[in-house]
Specification:
The complex is a heterodimer of chains A (about 230) and B (about 290). With about 230 residues, chain A is of the alpha/beta class. Chain A has helices spanning about 50-55, 80-85, 105-115, 120-130, 145-160, 175-190, 205, and strands spanning about 10-15, 25-30, 35-40, 65-70, 70, 90, 165-170, 195-200, 215-220, 220-225. Chain A has a domain at about 90-160. Chain B is elongated, with a radius of gyration of 31 Å. Classes of the chains: A alpha/beta (about 230), B alpha+beta (about 290). The interface of A and B includes residues 96, 108 and 109 of A.
Chain lengths: ~230, ~290
Amino acid sequence: MMDEDDPIVRFDNVGMRYGTGPEVLRDINMALEPGSFYFLTGESGAGKTSLLRLMYLANRPSRGLVHVFGRDVSTLGRDEVPVLRRHMGVIFQDFRLLDHLSTLDNVALPLRVAGAKGPKVRQHVAELLRWVGLGDHINAKPTTLSGGEQQRIAIARAVINQPNLLLADEPTGNVDDNIGMRLLFLFEELNRMGTTVVVATHNERLVSRFPYPRLVLEDGQVTKQKG
Amino acid sequence: MIRSQTDIPLERDAASRMLPWIIAIMVYLAALAIAGTLTLSQVIRSWSVAGTGTLTVQVPFGDSAAKTEALAERAASVLRETPGISRVRVLSRQDVAGLVKPWLGPAEQTAGLPLPALIDASVVGGASIDLAALSRRLAGIAPGATVEDHKKWLDKLVGFARSIWLVTLLVVAMILLAAVVTVIFTTRTGLRIHYRVIEVLHLIGAHDRYISRQFERQAVMLSLKGALVGVLLAVLTVVALAHLAAQVDLIRAPRLVFSVWQWGLFVLVPIVAGLVALYTARLTVLRTLGRLT
């Protein structure tokens, strides 16, 4: 799919607009190396979510080129997109959990979608849920849990298949700093195992505790800053 | 094990709840139409066989039964001499009385009535007989004698029955079309209702086929459930009608008696309904999702 040294994500002169509206992202040039860790910061409405949506292939750029895992997004066929997405983990700002499924089933979804079956799946999922502090809520429906607990389900779902690229949109937004730190340690651990991580956040307190570079979004443009 | 429940909660949709009932009604109507088609096919076949190559000659009542029988025997002799006619039989008075029994009552009541004599004749296959000339010859021997060519009117009747048979097939086809439209509507409604769930599944790497399989499973289950109810009701209706038909003593009334393979057609109906639901749901989901960017 891609050479070892190729960037996991590369943007060349990328601009993006929704419909006929103004450009929310413009002239973005950047490359995320394999195994890197970035914080994506910027004020509310700066375009953090839009930038992430381009990365997880929910939108296509209005102009410029986006490469993900070495593939030019504009040339991807409909059947190729899910294949790339299976190498990603995405934590959505609004969690996007399936309310009719249990915690266990929500977290197991990426494995099921990829065709995994059997008792090992359950064991693996239960283990991860214990790790994120939801071991007692395996059979609970998301609607019966707090916002923080739902967020941890979303995080567990995103990391269950050990993705090559983890994209997190405000993953610490609904948890206290303690749990926030714990979640970032989890991301760090995944990063150490080779996962490229991008965490969109405006929690300066947490960001300042980690030595990772930042992608700062301002006026629809990105600048890289050292951590 | 992870649960067997589907990722998309289709079983909660109002449209999904209605689907088995709609399919049950459609399958009931389709199965009855098929029963009608089969019966009609049997009738057409029996009429075709019975009506091919037979003639009936009617000799009016003379002054007495004995004279009528004598006239009939003379007419029969003429028929036997006619090229192309293979078998000639003069029906006895008892046979004629038996034929009119449904209208005039038992033989004792018709004993004194001036019943005509009837002659049944078989025509050799492919033989062409000049019926007008034959009628004239017979009238010369037995004034008022008439020749009835069964084939002529049976051909018209069979043609009419075949038209009805085609219309019945058209009805089955339209029911099938209506079932397809119903499944399309239900599937599209499900796609709209569960748009957000489908989006999540896509975002975590689900192919369109993964999603369509969930709709297919649901459509097949609901259709099979409805189809089984519909076909069972149809079979009960056919059995009841057959029972009623057996009690009505009508000449040439269609008989609702089916062979094993014909009953097998009824078993096929739910299978066809399931397959139609499966492929309709699959195509609907794949085409709808394919239009999304």
